[in-house]
Amino acid sequence: MIRDFDIINCNDLEKTYGTFHGRAGAKWEVVLKNELYIMKFPNNIKNMKKVEISYSTAPLSEFLGSHIYEILGFETHKTYLGYYYDKLVVLCKNFDPNRNLLHEFGEIKNHVSSTNTDSFVDSNDTTLSDILKTIDESEILQNKEEIKERFRDMFVIDAFINNSDRNNGNWGLLYDETNPKKQKIAPVYDNGNSFNNKLSVEQIKKRLSDENELINSSYRTLISVFKNNEGKNIKPFYMIKEKENDDLNKAILRNVPKICNKFDEICEFIDLIPNATKTGLPIVSDVYKIFIKSTLSRRLEDVLIPVYEDLKELQEINKCSKGLIKDNDGGMTM
């Protein structure tokens, strides 16, 4: 049995002919304990501006982000850390080994486009209202409310772990091979763009030593891949603090108690990640662990909990007022 913190020696794993798309580093399909896994490599980022390291920490981010989702009660792809010679890698269990069960959301958008002659739908478009409209208008989706609920939940948890790339190609549905009307939401996967994975140790130390920098890194400057109707990338914590979207408010009410109840477990999980492999290959520094826990704490304490408390208070007031009192930027009004 493989334990969560076992670091897998991938040098001699059997490789298959499976191929995968995506721009965030190379991906191979390998066999581990008679099961298929996708082995993901770190992306070479040495030519990026303002980046002081040669490779991203995406394998670590994938591993940690997926386990945080799992700790919070979401179904995810199983992940293990490993090493392939001088590279840290992450192994992600392939939940669609036959390549025909997973339908990414971009494919679903394409189907809506092909059946709607009045407008063209760009499968890569991440305008938030367009995504929700696609779900409502799709003729092939079942359980639409459940799908929208999962999307909102991911919006909140991705903000919490600073996953800035939840695009239309890394979430979707699993279809039954014999009956397309039998669908289930795919496990949460592809969390490699979490936790500021392109920062050097010196950049991390600078942020930890400066309160303003830490707040910026925690929530003030974070952006999402999703866009508003003006085509600008949404700042997720600004949107959460506005409390103007009822469905997002419900996602806050669902998920913030989970995060609070599991926060110590999340921090313990971070602390238990080995600093290096048995071969001496670095995995995560102590200062990066401190940075991750600090930013998670600030997001929770500075934004998520206050918004949750405001929403709970508004709920109680609305019960007494029979729903007549609403919240807006100017305060409570009748």
Low-confidence stretches: 324-334
Q: Report how far apart the termini are.
A: 60 Å
Q: Tally the helices: what do you get?
A: 9
Proportion of residues in helical segments: 40-55%
| SSE arrangement, N to C | EEEEHEEEHHHEEHHHHHEE
As laid out across the biggest beta sheet, the strand order is 1-5-6-4-3-2
Main β sheet profile = 6 strands, mixed
- Any idea what the radius of gyration is? 21 Å
Shape: globular
Brief synopsis:
By secondary structure, the chain is of the alpha+beta class. It has helices at residues 58-71, 105-115, 128-137, 144-161, 201-209, 211-220, 236-242, 246-272, 286-321; strands at residues 8-9, 14-15, 27-32, 35-40, 79-84, 87-93, 102-104, 172-175, 183-185, 326-328, 331-333.
Question: What does this entry look like structurally?
Answer:
By secondary structure, the chain is of the alpha+beta class. Helices cover 43% and strands 13% of the residues. It has 9 helices and 11 strands. It is globular and about 65 Å long.
